Here is the input.
Amino acid sequence: MTLTLDRRTVLRGMLGGVGAALSLPLLEAMLDDSGEALADGSELPQRFVMFFFGNGNIPSRWNPSGQGADWELTEELAPLANVKDYCSILSGFQNRCSSLITHHEGMTVFNGYSFVQNNGLFSKSGGPTIDQLIADVTAEATTVPSIQVGVSRRLSVMDSGTTLHNLSHRGTEQPLPPQFEPAQIYNTLFGSFTPKDDASGPLRIHVLDAVRETTNDLRKRVGQADRERLDAHLEGVSVLEKKIKALPPVCTRPGAPTQTNVDVGGVEPIGAVSDVMSDLITYAFACDVTRVASFMLSGGAAETVYGELGQNGAHHENTHNPGSALEKINEVVTFNVARFAYLLERLQATPDGDGTNLLDNSALMLSSDCSEGWSHSVFDQPIIVAGGARGQLVHPGIHYRSPNGENPSDILLALLRCFDASATSVGGGAPMSSTPLSAILV
Amino acid sequence: MLWGAACTGLIGGDGEPGEDAVSRQTTPAPGGLRRLTQSQYVESVRSLLGDGAAAVAAPPDDAELHGFDVIAAAQLALPASAVEQYEASARAIAKAAVAAGAKPTCAPTVPDDAPCLRQFVEAFGLYAWRRPLTALEIDIVTEAALASATHPDVSSFAAGIEAAIATLLQSPHFLYIVELGEGDGERRSLTPFELVTRMSFFLLGRTPDADALRYAAAEDLGDAEVVRALAREMVADDTAKSALMRFFAARYRLRDLDDISKNAELYPSFDGALGASMREETLRLVADVMVERDADARELFTADYTFVDARLAELYGMPPPASGFERRSLVDAQARAGIVGHASWLTRLSHPATTSPTRRGLFVRTAFLCDEIPPPPPGVATKLPEPGPEAKTKREQLKRHQEDPSCASCHRLIDDIGLALEGYDAIGAFRETDGGAPIDTDSAVDDLGSFESARALGEILADDPRTMQCLVRQLFRGSMGHLETPGEKVNLEALGDAFEASGHRVSDLLVEITASPAFRMVGPPK
Here is the structure.
């Protein structure tokens, strides 16, 4: 049986050469008799997206007044109107990061560790981010373990480490830098596949084998830190090898994107790039090329100027002037939420077999590096959990306001358990959690 | 290069009398692996296989730690996507190289002429991996090459060469600079190949060429004078200037000047091209002082001239050159001097619409003086009075930084430096008012004294011994890819003394760094 995607999924000229509709790899034909697993016995796929924008929100215009299932969209959440039932708003959490630099500590909301090696305006991640813990669970089933999307290139000058410039980290010494060009993301997802009769595939594997063999001796001679780096390098070799050996995805691949991430008349094309990245993520999930993405719309403490909104001052600077620039801050936060809403709507519009859509079978988490930018507070950072996670996340979504400043790592553990029921904790030190947030779990 | 001529008469000396003391007191930093930076990779490919191959080289982006790409390259692990980029890059390079005629000196008799492929692997491997390959390594690479040479669909000797190049360039032995030294103590001398490699990447920004590798094999690099002789040859090479310019472009935050934005209403003249001109101005002054004239490096802070193109001339109010860049005297009334008055960093460390005395002050502290400034204390609200009738100028808006005790202990050391530079707006143009109010640029900072302009600050910086010590420290960090360790401190002191004694000639400093014990040794691998 062949499904075609909703017409809305045919990309609006942003991806070149997309004429034919897609056929999806994951169809009823591939399910087992009960429809609860794939025919080969593996679990039905779930996807995860970690979504970030820098410089916080305006809590008074973000947080709904009602709680539980009884809540209304607020000014800054208004763009979520079409997908409200898929969203839970989580407020009133208190980040436990044990030291503060400003902005750096907010990034730890995604990993449950305090940052490390801090030295002035320098820090590194204390451990792996939640997307990478989930990728460790899902990687075996797909050719690409995870992708890291970046949109605004205007990163902060206030970090000489890795914390503010990278959303995903596999460990303290392995930040995963975002790819800012749609063509890069496209290559990561769909490049390197070789048709079965192409001789270059096996020959490239020969070369990769040789690369591995030449590394063995070196691996023994270096110290622990470099051995870990070589192991990460060899893990990359294995990922590539798997990709070369894999059959091209069953679905029709989209054409290479024509949208580039280059300023037009001094204005960053944030909206267009963001939306084409969301389209690519949707394709990747539909084709089951990867199940995990991180999405850095702007960096921590980013220097982004939202020229598209008619602004010509930096958003970060504006967030320190809430008196005169409050409406500008609000405009940007709302625009950012609309970019997230676009991704949710694309996932919702894409069937995923058995009457479900991709959003039903995904979990997403949105946050920022602080609540209000002028105080850099990490109490009440904006947090949205979205998607159904195959019926594991509460639906319709709720507004849960923590009565006592709970640990946001509880949210991470709840999400991880949607992918790995045996997970017992996330993070380490003061921000560690061993108590999943039950309010969002069914 | 004529190495022989350079070292005649030098071999056999035991170095300076003081050198042994420095060496004895040195505990070298750990050895290990340093990944090639983007430019080191591309320039190495150029040196190994020519411009055509370099043109298709596409290594992954650099990261930075502490502002240094080479420090990130010594610490961070690669994401999987980077390994894929290296593969694609190596294949493209190999293809271009074979198309341009890369081949062994032997003549293959059959497509799968294994001895001839082997000979190529051995010969090219020496240059690519910067040391002779072991027999096992030659076997491994030759086997991968033979698989291509004999594959029924491909079946050509050239395909074997292509695979050999692609394998050698994807191996960690090419992608990482290996510095493990000899022996197993706390102080291990770099092998001659490792030392020449470290020197070449530092001074020339690329892999050592055939002459340098021959030198490593033939000469006694345990002798500091022999090291100096090789270093002098390298410093005299044209490539050394490009490597040094790349280094200072990063130090002075010039790299992304063509990719920042300014408020279009307030600064309609600013665009990427103007940003690029600003970068060029600063690099030309650095090159003029440190390379072309090989003058006292302190002139970087006191020069009464600069280099401008037509657009910069307009910004500074100078007569425009007919074309390109020309040297011009500074406009006296703007009270600039050297790099301190350059639009480049003044622009980069401003916001889109306004200046930032705090960021400019922080830059002077960190980039010129190598100070480390702690972050704001926990829980502090960074809300300052906004521009308005009560607080028109930055000095008025930043008053809280001076008066609130939780801010003042650090901000007094930072903001006042920037406030003296308020006469230069967010794109570095001269101004006398801000928000309609006259600007007060009088500043006094505990450890620097009183000053009220770029010129006055430049003179203070030139006279402050910390400024040249900072330059030494930055080049030392860049040379090996790590922040200095306590066990290396004595080397920095000796280098500072030698730099001063040489009249602050950077060419001498570069040579002395390579001859210092910390540079020639490593500790146990990290």
User: Anything to note?
Assistant: The longest helix of chain B spans residues 272-292. The two ends of chain B are 35 Å apart (CA to CA).
